[in-house]
Write a structure and sequence with these properties.
Helix content is 43%, strand content 15%. The chain is an alpha/beta fold and 384 residues long.
Length: 384
């Protein structure tokens, strides 16, 4: 019998993926559990990619990505943000999620600690554990408008804390951190000599206020900024993202990426390169669609009497389900069984997510309306 190491044996299933698997077995299920854009790969990308793939010259690439893509990303960062980045600091990834894997593997040793948000994207927590380090949570609580309490963070970190991860707009909360919060993260990192990982996968999907990019507050020598083509351009199945890294860390991060995956798929990199030339109107239309979904979802939930957090950005609405008197996972399974609508259980994003659920708004408008209608009817029957 194969002996499974304890740190792998103890890994839980993702509650999101568990619900997704159950829902896929139901013909009429409404899928509001997964953060995948309903838009297909843009025709702008597919049409312009055809000459490339018909040549058949789809090969291995440099580990850090093809030069033309890295150069175009650098150009785009300067054009859109005024952020001047040398292409040598840009690393192409097989999905933005892989960026944290590389950074954790490269920078952490046993006994090191990483501060991660809770509720937060659960993959980050388990990536830290798989690297042999220890995750520390900083909580984003409703009584503080889901903003971090820096006094508590100071009390949590130790001399072994090496990294703090920031995610704005937040998955699952939809909170967009204001400028003062970003400045406080920068002060904290400077004071305690922390590397900051800024997960900005939802940067384009901001419905209230503005997205405050971390590069404006944290010096480049201690900042890793991670971006997603999946979310921004609806390229989820192509598995491509990128990160901007400190110059002195780039060679070490490259070695780790090299031994883990060799390189990101060539054709995916070309698709990403083309996506960067998409007309602004195409991207704005996607953002406006999901803003409209958010507005409708919030109106329907408010009319039904649900307690929820209206998202300022991202793909999700965070709802309070404590009135049902059951654990989040049990609630979501019961809702799926009884009403054929799938939500993501709140405890999949950390212990403080217990009693909550996440509704995805990056679906077709009619799916949002039907899914929430079923949720409302379920609530009426359950609570009387």
């Amino acid at each position: 019998m194969v002996n499974i190491p304890e740190h792998v044996n103890c890994l839980p299933r993702s509650g999101i993926r568990e619900l997704m698997g159950l829902a896929l077995c139901m013909e009429d299920a409404v899928h509001l559990e997964i953060g995948e854009p309903h838009f297909p790969t843009p025709s702008f990308v597919l049409d312009r990619l055809e000459p490339f793939y018909r040549l058949g010259e789809i090969k291995y690439t440099p580990t850090v990505g093809i030069p033309s893509l890295r150069e175009k990303i650098a150009y785009t960062l300067d054009k859109e943000k005024g952020w001047k980045v040398d292409p040598s600091r840009i690393m192409i990834l097989p999905g933005s999620l892989f960026g944290t894997v590389v950074v954790f593997q490269a920078l952490l040793s046993g006994g090191d600690e990483v501060l991660i948000p809770e509720p937060g994207f659960t993959n980050h927590l388990h990536q830290v554990e798989l690297s042999g380090a220890t995750p520390l949570r900083y909580h984003l609580l409703s009584e503080n408008s889901f903003l971090p309490d820096f006094t508590r963070i100071e009390e949590t970190l130790t001399s072994s804390t090496k990294i703090i991860l920031v995610n704005s707009p937040s998955n699952p909360l939809g909170v967009v951190f204001p400028e003062e919060t970003m400045k406080n993260f920068a002060r904290l990192a400077e004071k305690h000599n922390l590397v900051v990982i800024s997960d900005e996968a939802y940067e384009k999907y901001v419905y209230e206020g503005k997205h405050n990019e971390m590069f404006r507050y944290v010096p480049p020598e201690r900042l890793v900024s991670i971006f997603s083509f999946s979310k921004t351009y609806a390229l989820t199945g192509w598995r491509v993202g990128y990160m901007v890294v400190p110059e002195e860390l780039s060679c070490h991060l490259m070695k780790v990426e090299e031994y883990l995956i060799a390189c990101t798929a060539h054709i995916s990199q070309k698709a990403a390169e083309i996506a960067l030339d998409m007309p602004d109107g195409d991207l704005s239309a996607m953002v406006e669609c999901y803003k409209g979904n958010r507005d409708i979802a919030c109106r329907l939930l408010e009319e039904a009497g649900f307690t929820f957090f209206p998202p300022q950005g991202g793909y999700y609405v965070w709802i309070d389900i404590r009135e049902f008197g059951m654990p989040s996972l049990e609630f979501c399974k019961t809702l799926l069984k009884e009403s054929c609508v799938a939500l993501a259980p709140g405890d999949a994003f950390g212990e403080s997510g217990e009693g909550f659920a996440r509704i995805s708004i990056c679906r077709r408008r009619e799916e949002i309306e039907e899914g929430i209608h079923r949720l409302v009817e379920f609530r009426k029957e359950f609570l009387g």
